[in-house]
Amino acid sequence: MSDTKAHGARGSAGLTILHLATDAYGGYGGVALYNRDAIEGMCADPAVKKVVSVARVQSAPLQPLPDKLTYDTSGLGGVADYLKAVWRQLRANPDIDLVYCAHINLAPVAWAISRLRRVPWMLCIYGIDAWPQYATPRGKFFASRADLVCAVSAVTRDRFRSWCPVPLEKTEVTPNAIHLDEFGIGPKRPDLLARYGLEGAKVIMTFGRLDPAEKYKGFDEIIELMPEMLEERPELRYLIVGKGDDRPRLEAKAAALGVGDKVIFTGPIEEEEKADIYRLVDVYAMPSKGEGFGFVVLEALACGVPAIGSNQDGTQEAVRQGMIGQVVDPDNPAQIKAAIFKVIDAPREIPEGLAYFALPAFTARLQGLIHRLVGR
Q1: Contact at 8 Å (CB) between 325 and 354?
Q2: Nearest 5°: phi and psi at 236?
Q3: According to the model, what pLDDT value does residue 178 have?
Q4: pLDDT for 3
Q5: 4-177+358-374 and 180-354: same fold?
């Protein structure tokens, strides 16, 4: 346990937060976005003087950085380089008040710093990174010593606690934030309809990484349903958005089922086109089994697209247990089909309950937790 009394006086002129990141700025995907939102929420807090983030991975050019942020990319070369970068920042910033650990793999570093500087530390977990199938004695030892564990969903928190003995009162659910101003209801762009051959079609969509090791997104379930659904609705098309090495297998499966020309693979898409691609869609379906939360569900809802989540993972929380979308059993094809047909002709509408996940709500939650940890 950290000595919070020792750091309280030291940070009296304003808080300094050390953020240990996998990727954030210059990163793709939900975890990188979550980290950017967390960093910007910290920087927006008037009580925070400085945020120092040390990145482990960068795969794209950096996005604009907040004024209070020092973003250190000198540790990208490997574990040794990362540890050296962290050590340099510790020497340059003797007034650290809190350590924010953005991935369970970095928990040993966060724990060591909290012991050295006698400050509290918090750990963020996202999904399968902290589920039982990835449990290790090392992870259990360090993660159980966090002063606070923030999980993106209750499913992730509960599965984490099934193997890591963290008291419930030392955990919080802090779901992803949706930037509502970047989405919204809009017309279907004719050039995108032409690009993907979707003119006159009713479109089902799933967005995610096509990874052979992660066959839980729901792609297989929808492809297997396509022949049956096409008998009733021949205008249906299934749009699979994302990249990965599992694409050849999925393409072969669609071809073998006789729906190869009805299943469209976009490959990677440009970030600036994302909202317009959602707007091509009539229903977003993710009958998945391994999503920690399902941020893409929020993006679809933010464009007015009806969404379907799963009762076996965190997507049920993205649709707020059925309040702003449907929940299905991914092992029940009839249930998935019924849910799709129920909403595929529905008018576009952004549900009021989506505001629960809006960026201001996320920022307020995060800032409240930080103040609770540092005692002011």
Answers
A1: no
A2: -70, 145
A3: 96
A4: 37
A5: yes
Strand stretches in 75-191, DSSP E: 98-101, 121-125, 148-151, 171-173
What does the DSSP 8-state code read for residue 59?
-
C-alpha span between 24 and 17 (Å, rounded): 15
Tokens of 291: 């999503």
Average pLDDT in the chain: 94
Question: Considering the domain 4-177+358-374 in this protein, what is its CATH number?
Answer: 3.40.50.2000
Architecture in CATH of 180-354? 3-Layer(aba) Sandwich (3.40)
Token readout for 220 is 């297989």
What pLDDT does 122 receive?
Answer: 98
User: Distance between CA atoms of 155 and 5, rounded to whole angstroms?
Assistant: 33
Neighbours of 31 (CB within 10 A): 24
Angle value at C-alpha 45, between 121 and 271, nearest 5 degrees: 90
Structure confidence at residue 66 (pLDDT): 96
Instruction: Kindly list the domain boundaries of the chain, sorted by start residue.
Output: 4-177+358-374, 180-354
